[in-house]
């Protein structure tokens, strides 16, 4: 039930610290400082390439994971939306690892892609939230998220739990490939363990975000920008906004903006910038200047250092806790979810049952 919450989506956003902690419990042993995946009867040391397939928000979790698999394990990742993967006759080396990500475990395109990969002699790993689903049953390696039932049509807590599982999986793979020593592994585990508290800190911006919803609600178009693993978070922010508030939104890699979308920018287009301080920050700041020079109105989502450095002249800023880059995508999911939620509530749309959308897309 919804309890004190107005919508399931809101309840599910606020459940994230708990369900992410719950999910992590099955994947890390904090006292030993190690990641521990379910026994897979499959030697990860031999994995040379991973094919990731999913749809929608689950696909964006896969995009974030690509950065992790490549960075930690130095394993190259091929990733596709399921509806493209199935029909492009992908090249799959026999014995390869194919990874499917799905909240429902029933999405028709993803399930068909899984079966195609199986027919091509791939080992099938599945990150799934519904343990009794078709995908869960057909997996060789089942990696459950423990988000609990997700009722709001827009995926929120399932997504952050997917990220938690995928980060642990990437660390596990890196260890199996001899790319992660004990100290580095303990470090990753410690950072993952910081996620629930950081999610709580991110949720504390709720009222502030509610207070700025009126700035975004009148827009016809909204642009979301990010770099590195925060680029998929820009895509996710745009998807959340369009599905529940019906405002056209696009996510872009910050550096790609000048290759086209910059033409859209004027004082009617809010630009939401996701930019934790760190090595990529200066680059994003220069993209913000390009936006500002054209009268664009920026909402900067960063930590206190980033807001201090680049917050001036923004239409609004949202201050996140300062977190390790590994967990930044989980933490930055919260403000984009809350922004979409409050804009939708402000506009009076049906948040939990947006028009034309179904929770589980079981047709092609
Ligand atoms: C977005 C959303 C959809 C789903 C997509 C995949 O908020 O809910 O984009 O992410 O339909 O669904 P699953 O993860 O069940 O395969």
From TrEMBL:
Glycoprotein listed as a keyword: no
Keyword field: Aminotransferase, Cytoplasm, Glutamine amidotransferase, Repeat, Transferase
Localization per record: Cytoplasm
Single biological process term from Gene Ontology: fructose 6-phosphate metabolic process
Gene Ontology molecular function: any one: glutamine-fructose-6-phosphate transaminase (isomerizing) activity
Cellular component GO terms held in the UniProt record: cytosol
Catalyzed reactions: D-fructose 6-phosphate + L-glutamine = D-glucosamine 6-phosphate + L-glutamate
Main subcellular location of this protein, as a coarse class: cytoplasm
Domain of life, per lineage: Bacteria
Function: Catalyzes the first step in hexosamine metabolism, converting fructose-6P into glucosamine-6P using glutamine as a nitrogen source.
Protein name: Glutamine--fructose-6-phosphate aminotransferase [isomerizing]
Encoding gene (name): glmS
Location of this fragment in the whole protein: 244 to 607 of 607
